[in-house]
């Protein structure tokens, strides 16, 4: 079969066009190459050149030449460049230095690729269903249940032995993905000389084109098999909240790489052959080197979790093995026609790795959130692997028309999608029209101390939009000049606030104590609010059900506010006014269970929720009220000043 395919492709009359000759040469040869089709394109790009290995993202080759220059396979272990934990499996960051490139019509490529059955054996997940379900239970109980984060992605790997010649199998699988998968951001095949990577990834991680940086959070999975109801899926709180959480996490990344943070576009439906996802697009302007953009966005919360630094710890703790290329990116770097840097980097998911000896690996993970069930997440791993496994002959290929595509345009579906934004913060959905600088804040310096949750980047953008001059520093280096800042904002972080062994909490506690003693304005957020509460004498309580990614309408000092929580712990109180050594402290609390949502005292305030979150529809109004009072008088607002406030509660 392989010989017949070779003979058929090579047979022809007269000289071949350059593009066709290049394609034929590389698919039969040993030179490193890549074939890729971008979403909606009617052509396949052919790239070939020299293979090198880079030790860091800064070493990725990028010179002044116009056009594509380097295709980098960035493994998950590269996250160590951000100082995050990982199990180092030694997977190299291989780079194709592009010397030749061409584009061929899709139809011509399909005619040339082998339509060959792929023979495999010894197939199955390396972690069985029961063991994976047990791991899901463990993460829900020990990590999300103890405040370590809002969501985590734990993977397992489908393995098999490919008995068809590996090159033929890889090209046939690529052909099957081109013809059988839909909705992929990139459909690709890469040969490095040591491995084939074949995939159809749905998700752009990050791209830069003429200074426009974009990200594409995708989450929520509707499985076509079984004939489910798409509208019921869109109404499912678990699926909705899963998307909101990764939206927040990627907004944190956009806060680091885009000059004014990210603007949210969507939501949209991403339809593939075996499943449909929900997605947003994020857009902003950047002047950063594209390699710095890559570094600051390692890696997508859709394949790691949030907050990202602690998610890396959780992954290392529970997976206890390397991820190779799973959850990394395939990054194409170059320069546009004007000489500006360009980047296109899809996530390495829905991807098979095939060795020259026929060893096959298809890693796949599920996003675990507070609503998750072990059985549901086991099923999700099968659904996510189905497209690639079908291309390899390991699963039935999706039948044409299996999903009722007309449902995607149904008025009820469009309304359900649009309604997802009704409860979200307009600050991130619009071009900052709701955030006008306040004269009171102009020239005021604010310091945010990050407790290992980069929500602080989003908070910084909101405070800057209000007119403040904002600096963000990490918990381990807050500086010795805290008194030079007119406002101190100790920020959020993961973990147990009462754990004496958790360094960020210890450091934040010292910063808060110093500020209390000095009597200077301070706003504490989430973890820091819990620390402040305990220092004021309030007991802390671990919630029976975590508030991770939860939106609630609460009474905040007499005004109803819609805000987003990411917490497992809360302070408790049975009274609304608390006498303390620092003066009387007013509490906004849940009358049902005594959970303290916010507090305010002489010169300080604290909020358990995240005013910067996309879930906090009224977050900007809350910040404006609290900060106006703190910076006008150096003390928190009274009940009367809040009631008389000219800032309305925001509603969609």
From TrEMBL:
Keyword Endoplasmic reticulum: no
Coiled coil region boundaries: none
Residue span(s) of domain Glutamine amidotransferase: 447-626
Record keywords: Aminotransferase, Glutamine amidotransferase, Lyase, Transferase
InterPro entries according to UniProt: ADC_synthase (IPR005801), Anth_synth_I-like (IPR019999), Chorismate_C (IPR015890), Class_I_gatase-like (IPR029062), GATASE (IPR017926), TrpG/PapA_dom (IPR006221)
Reactions listed under catalytic activity: chorismate + L-glutamine = anthranilate + pyruvate + L-glutamate + H(+)
Protein name: anthranilate synthase
Gene3D superfamilies per UniProt: 3.40.50.880, Anthranilate synthase
Top-level taxon of origin: Bacteria
EC identifiers of the protein: 4.1.3.27
Protein's GO biological process: L-tryptophan biosynthetic process
Domain Chorismate-utilising enzyme C-terminal residue range list: 130-384
GO MF assignments: anthranilate synthase activity; transaminase activity
